[in-house]
Amino acid sequence: MIPVFSPLLGEEELKNVNEAIKSGWISSKGKFIEEFENKFAEYSGCKYGVAVTNGTSALHLALTVLGVKKGDEVIIPNFTMMATALAVVYTGAKPVFVDCEEETGNIDVKKIKDKINYKTKVILPVHIYGHACDMDEINKIAEKHKLFVVEDAAEAHGAEYKNKRCGSLGDIGCFSFYANKLITTGEGGMLVTNSEEIYEKAKSLRNLSFGKENRFLHEEVGFNYRMTNVQAGIGLGQMKRIDFILKKKIENALLYNSFLRGVKGIDIPIEKSYVKNSYWMYAIRFNDNFGFNKKDVKTKLFEKGVDSRDFFIGMNKQPFFKKIGLQVDEKFPISEKWSETGLYLPSGVDLTKENIKYICDCIEEIKNGK
Ligand SMILES: *Cc1c(COP(=O)(O)O)cnc(C)c1O
Fold first, then answer.
1. How far apart are CA 316 and CA 335, in angstroms?
2. What digits encode the pLDDT tens for the residues 218-246?
3. 3-state SS track over 112-130
4. Which atom of ligand 1 has the smallest separation from the CA of 189?
5. Measuring CA to CA, which of 207, 229, 290, 308 is 20 to 30 A from 65?
């Protein structure tokens, strides 16, 4: 079976994990943490990094630092991973959904304005599958309405918008280092920013908001979102590979494109002229011309030894929102279409050219009813 993804780990990571264990620095103190924060923040075009337990906690911490609370609203795409919406729910604020655009699956910038009111505090775009959102337009809207911008860049390490890296384009950028992300620390995440004030606040809130004068007098409701030194050691090892991983992802995507471009009924991923797509996952859609729906394709691919994954299901369809009184009756036709027609194909960096050729041949066979 060709898996959808497998992480690339090796000697560098092992060496650092060994060192952390031998030195006894296995919790959240130790030399790897700051080094990893500095390296990754710099990579993402930011001055400061705050390493945390996962991407979800990075998002929650980011919104908390910006003062988001009950009674506020945060604008997010309807088509995203659940963590984006949950981070908003944790703060007590209300997530307000915006449909996605047809070409990229990213939040439809033209539809943001209609959702802004006096309660809106933050716009939280997500760079879906590694294609950057139109950040200039989003920042313009945010500036006009005095809103903060938090990027969910959990799928966009190394991706670029107008030659700037994702994560550095708003007030705060949030990353995940889950095993299937561009680089991994097992579980892990990071908040990056160019604001010293945000940085200091985030560091304090990450660590239970211990008092400055008297350590055991806490002025804020802090969290324990600390990353361990062991994880940071893995992350530092990954930083030595990040350029290679990104390059390989892009090469693989272009190879997939070359085989699938000519197949009628498939929408291959795009790359707008001002974007560098990181192709975190190679995500395609099957339109009516393909002749089979993606559910059939998924089953048949599996029978041929190729694993794949469905796209996200829209936030408006999530049962738990009803339970907490946040049901939306509004329709989100584009995001629905994306969910119904999209699959992502194996996207690991260990894929060979032959693997990719085989996967694309399988897709053609399926189209021809085989
Ligand atoms: C992976 C992901 C997250 C959450 O990251 P975790 O580390 O799993 O908590 C958030 N948003 C998006 C868009 C993601 O893909």
1. 10
2. 889 999 999 999 999 999 999 999 999 99
3. CHHHCCCCEEEECCECHHH
4. 7
5. 229
Tens digits of per-residue pLDDT, 60-117?
999 999 999 999 999 999 999 999 999 999 999 999 999 999 999 999 999 999 999 9
242-367 CATH choice from 3.40.50.150, 3.90.1150.10, 3.30.450.20, 3.30.470.30:
3.90.1150.10
Helix (H, G, I), strand (E, B) or coil at 339: helix
Q: How do residues 113-146 score in pLDDT, each as one tens digit?
A: 999 999 999 999 999 999 999 999 999 999 999 9
11-99+106-239 classified as CATH 3.40.640.10: yes
Residue 178 is classified by DSSP as B
Q: Please check the confidence at residue 359 and state whether its pLDDT lies above 90.
A: yes
Q: Which residues sit opposite 207 in a β-bridge? A: 224
For the chain, the structural domain boundaries read 11-99+106-239, 242-367
Ligand 1 centre distance from Cα of residue 61 (Å): 14
Could you tell which of 81, 128, 182, 234 is best to mutate to test the pocket of ligand 1, judged by most ligand atoms within 8 Å of the CB? 81
Most ligand 1 atoms within 8 A of CB, residue of 80, 84, 279 to mutate: 84
How far, in Å, CA of 280 to CA of 106, rounded?
14
